[in-house]
Specification:
Strand content: 35-45%
Distance between the termini: 63 Å
Number of helices: 5
Number of domains: 1
CATH architecture: Beta Barrel
Shape: globular
Order of helices and strands: EEHEHEHHEEEEEEEEH
CATH superfamily: Calycin beta-barrel core domain
Amino acid sequence: MQQRGGFAGIGLAGRCCALLVSGGAVAGVMFWSEHEEPSPQLQQRMTGQFVLDESRSELEMRLGQAVERVVQPLGATVRSVARAQLSRVVTYCREYDMELALDGVRVQCDETAEIEQGLRDVASGRGREDAAALEVELAEDAVVLSAEGVDGERTTTYRFDGQGRLEVNVRVTSQQLDRPLAWSVRYRRVTPEVPVRTPAVAASLAEH
């Protein structure tokens, strides 16, 4: 790992940031428990388009404060270098276009390339030294994407309140940081929720 001014660059931030925040692609493995499937309610809440629901100036000020909380314990000689690196990590999307189904999840941030992955498929990272292990976890009201690399972990939680609002929480931990780097961004739905047709309902309709 390249050393700059006594502060080692956070490789995880650069490798996983694009996937979990900006919607870019990264080599890795995304897997889903065979005994776990998204509920129709969660599929309905996540599928659609969401736009930023707070002032950009206030948001950017808050993100800057998140960086400052992390760099303050560092020595003065490396603080400015760390601040510059971490400021590139703490990003946000102006809008999301997402879809959650039984067989896959898709997330697109702004105009960047979308993430589209089968929930039980494996995207091999063989031959890539910077490959990260990617995991999807489900909660009653949230979808959690985690990426773990050799020097840390990044977790992005998409939490839905059931009333058209989305909160995206990001947490980055690294051996190079004394404390986690964490921030959150609020969004609102701009497309109506579409009821999810479960296999049982689809079969019932087909019989008629």
